[in-house]
Amino acid sequence: MKQQNNDLFQWFIITVIGGKEDSIIQTLKEKIVNFSYEEYVKEIKVFKTKVVKEEIFEKTSAALPKTMRNTKTIQWTTLPNGSYKKTTQRITNKFPGYVFINMLMDPQVWYCIRNTNGVLGFVGSSGKGAMPIPISIVEYEQVTAPNNTDVNDTTNESLINSETNEQENTASSENTETMKVIYECPFVVGNTVRIASGAFEGESGEIKSLDNSKGTAIVQIEVFGRSTNVELPYDQLKIDD
């Protein structure tokens, strides 16, 4: 194939099976090499975001460990009432079910990609052989905003300082007993809410379900023209007037 002009490369969004983004990216990269399409594809990636989970452990629980240890992803703190809070942080895909590809659109390469196991299609394609529309520069800049994380960014491997206090030693959280917390819910299913903070700040959507034991809601929002359900804590949501 003839070498193409780099200025013609654009960003497209591939829809894939949710939860399998990383393995699908690997498959796509292997296919591109096998078919000698490297000159048509510059980059394939997803964007990550940080998710924080908090659990409260009763101080009187017989199963409470005698010692605890902070790690890169787990932080233990003592609450004023003597209970313990475990904060877990993990990195997850900001846009579940989407893969971003910087490529020169070519019919053969497009056919190769969309006929890959796990690939559902391209955002911006009406089907029936219609070529997809690339995302605009503005849309891509929104995706690559500072609160987003490139999948290749290794700085997030150290989410929490792993240094421990003198009073904190190794313990397994598998032996702990979690105190059940019921969150006060200011919403009802069907409410239209605006996301006030986090990865989807500024987006609006409809509440599909509520979980008062976790203090989270499933909100249906539109991401690049496709309805997507995301789980968000109550404190990130506000009624959309």
Q: Could you describe the 3D structure shown?
A:
The protein is mainly β and 241 residues long. The chain has 3 domains: 8-47 and 94-145, 2-Layer Sandwich (Alpha-Beta Plaits); 49-91, no CATH class; 191-239, SH3 type barrels, CATH 2.30.30. The protein is 12% helix and 34% strand. It has helices at 21-34, 107-114, 137-143, and strands at 10-16, 41-45, 47-57, 74-78, 84-93, 98-103, 119-122, 149-150, 192-195, 204-211, 216-223, 226-233, 237-239. The strands form 3 sheets. A 5-stranded antiparallel beta sheet has the order 12-11-10-9-13, with no helix packed on it. It is elongated and about 65 Å long. Pfam families: KOW, NusG. Residues 8-147 form the NusG-like N-terminal domain. This is Transcription termination/antitermination protein NusG.
